[in-house]
From TrEMBL:
<dbReference type="GO" id="GO:0016020">
    <property type="term" value="C:membrane"/>
</dbReference>
<feature type="region of interest" description="Disordered">
    <location>
        <begin position="460"/>
        <end position="498"/>
    </location>
</feature>
<dbReference type="GO" id="GO:0015297">
    <property type="term" value="F:antiporter activity"/>
</dbReference>
<dbReference type="InterPro" id="IPR002528">
    <property type="entry name" value="MATE_fam"/>
</dbReference>
<feature type="transmembrane region" description="Helical">
    <location>
        <begin position="78"/>
        <end position="99"/>
    </location>
</feature>
<feature type="transmembrane region" description="Helical">
    <location>
        <begin position="156"/>
        <end position="173"/>
    </location>
</feature>
<keyword id="KW-0472">Membrane</keyword>
<feature type="transmembrane region" description="Helical">
    <location>
        <begin position="408"/>
        <end position="426"/>
    </location>
</feature>
<keyword id="KW-1133">Transmembrane helix</keyword>
<feature type="transmembrane region" description="Helical">
    <location>
        <begin position="341"/>
        <end position="360"/>
    </location>
</feature>
<protein>
    <recommendedName>
        <fullName>Multi antimicrobial extrusion protein</fullName>
    </recommendedName>
</protein>
<comment type="similarity">
    <text>Belongs to the multi antimicrobial extrusion (MATE) (TC 2.A.66.1) family.</text>
</comment>
<feature type="transmembrane region" description="Helical">
    <location>
        <begin position="12"/>
        <end position="29"/>
    </location>
</feature>
<keyword id="KW-0812">Transmembrane</keyword>
<feature type="transmembrane region" description="Helical">
    <location>
        <begin position="35"/>
        <end position="57"/>
    </location>
</feature>
<feature type="transmembrane region" description="Helical">
    <location>
        <begin position="179"/>
        <end position="199"/>
    </location>
</feature>
<feature type="transmembrane region" description="Helical">
    <location>
        <begin position="306"/>
        <end position="329"/>
    </location>
</feature>
Length: 498
């Protein structure tokens, strides 16, 4: 499991590389407002659409992992098609928020000049969301089958090309944040193109891929069956992601603009660091999900112990690495001494304090979701990351006037409380009962798919009967017409003889 974690970590690290390289090139403009606006625009497009698509597919992967463990390839392929359809629906709905981002950001108290530039980035980044629909859907499809290297290769290759597009559009064409949005769109679309090529050449997931049927993919009854599992499981990831995005909006309301610039600069590498935990979470979720689907209780317990131990070791390594390289990141991502001060506040709050609680609770959430306890995880996330975090952040950051450090204390508190609650939950999970529950749900899913297929067949047969009946009526009418014309011809012949 730890070996395959490298591939999933590398896949998610590609997202961090994209953001860091883009922030570095935006920094070359030398405009603090652009740096702040880019961080805010990235926050907005992630929170309103990309993070939802990603989180939903994470939840669907949890559902698919159980089915993959039961070796039901046909159902797995149908769910893959339905994940694409659901992602398209989310994208179309989220356009309302993206196209009105300027008005909404100013409503939340963001300065109009920063909000306007953020709007430019999100507007030109819309095509990137189309790429994410297919990239994330195919990712959950392959990850659920424990195939991790396909998306790793595609993501890293696209990430290596990303600085070229950023330099060309942002600096060479002098398009500013419009160019940043275009560069993001090009990279995200290419990422899926690379995935599609690798899947075709290698034949990965071939045994489970099903023809895309519109009625089957957009079956609302089947959507509801999937969403019941996917929303709670993916909701934990989305709430964690969107909470840091909302935290950025809160930082944007601090009187010192350097707070937002420093926070946004750190946020680009925060994603880089956090993707290590995300990679372990994804891997352990897929492995435990397959173990539950295969009814292997002891394997699920062993994987849990390994994952939590590996997370503690990872936190220690990342903290030491971050402290050793902080001067490098300061030179790379900051422009002024005031911005550097705020950057270091966020940097130290994250790597020395926040990383322990947040990394651990993220991996614990993946374990619990794999064990079919996703409903419990999302409940705790709502209390900690949507309530506790913002109460503490507002109190310390604004009331006590501790600034950026006070806002980050809210996140630290939420992560620690969540990890303690999740550990208590893990001690009380009845794995045998969850295996029974998962097997029952797989059976229901298969029956629902078979029912949908039989309904389609019956509909086709009835349509064919109607077509046959109508064709018979047409033939009868033609015969009647022919008989009538023959009778008329005979009468004319008799008249002519007379």
């Amino acid at each position: 499991m730890l070996k395959t974690s490298v591939a999933s970590i590398s896949t998610y690290m590609g997202i961090g590389i994209l953001n860091v390289s883009q922030m570095i090139i935006v920094k070359q403009t030398g405009i603090t407002t652009d740096i702040a606006a880019f961080g805010l625009g990235l926050t907005w497009i992630n929170a309103c659409s990309y993070a939802i698509i990603m989180a939903l597919n994470d939840g669907i992967r949890n559902f698919s992992s159980h089915i993959s463990g039961s070796k039901d390839h046909k159902t797995l392929g149908i769910i893959y098609n339905q994940s694409i359809a659901i992602s398209w629906f989310v994208f179309l709905v989220s356009l309302a928020l993206i196209l009105n981002s300027f008005q909404l950001l100013t409503f939340f108290g963001i300065a109009p000049d920063i909000a306007a530039k953020s709007y430019e980035f999100t507007l030109y980044g819309i095509p990137s969301l189309i790429g994410s629909i297919y990239f994330e859907s195919s990712r959950q499809f392959l990850f659920s089958q424990k195939i991790f290297h396909v998306h790793m290769k595609a993501q890293l290759f696209a990430a290596l090309l990303h600085p070229i597009w950023c330099y060309f559009f942002i600096l060479h064409q002098d398009m500013g944040l419009k160019g940043a949005g275009i560069a993001r769109s090009v990279t995200f679309l290419l990422s899926y193109v690379f995935v599609w090529i690798i899947m075709k050449i290698g034949g990965y997931g071939k045994q489970a891929i099903q023809p895309f049927k519109f009625k089957e993919a957009f079956s609302l009854s089947q959507w509801w069956h999937i969403v019941q599992v996917a929303v709670p499981a993916g909701g934990t990831n989305y709430l964690k992601w969107v909470s840091i995005e909302c935290l950025t909006v809160l930082v944007g309301n601090l009187p010192n603009k350097n707070c937002l610039a420093g926070h946004a600069a750190f946020f680009s590498i925060n994603i880089f660091f956090s993707m290590f935990a995300k990679g372990i979470q994804t891997t352990v979720n897929s492995f435990i999900g397959n173990a539950i689907g295969e009814a292997k209780e002891q394997l699920a317990k062993n994987l849990t112990t390994i994952a939590i131990s590996a997370t503690f070791l990872l936190c220690l390594i990342l903290m030491l690495f971050g402290l050793a390289t902080q001067s490098f990141f300061v030179q790379l991502l900051t422009t002024t001494s005031a911005m550097e001060t705020q950057f270091l506040i966020a940097f130290h709050m994250y790597l020395c304090v926040d990383v322990w609680g947040n990394f651990l609770q993220q991996v614990q959430a993946g374990i619990l979701s794999g064990m079919n306890r996703q409903n419990d995880t999302v409940k705790y996330y709502m209390w900690t990351f949507l309530l506790l975090q913002f109460v503490v952040a507002y109190f310390c950051g604004f009331y006590l006037q501790w600034g950026l450090a006070g806002v980050w204390l809210g996140r630290v508190a939420a992560g620690i409380v969540n990890s303690i609650c999740f550990q208590i939950l893990l001690q009380h999970v009845d794995i045998k009962q969850e295996i029974i529950n998962v097997q029952l749900r797989i059976k229901q899913t298969k029956q629902l798919n078979e029912l949908n297929v039989s309904n389609v067949i019956e509909g086709n047969e009835s349509q064919q009967d109607e077509n046959n009946t109508s064709s018979q009526q047409i033939q009868l009418q033609q015969l009647n017409n022919n008989e009538g014309s023959e009778q008329k011809t005979a009468k004319h012949a008799q008249i002519a003889k007379k």
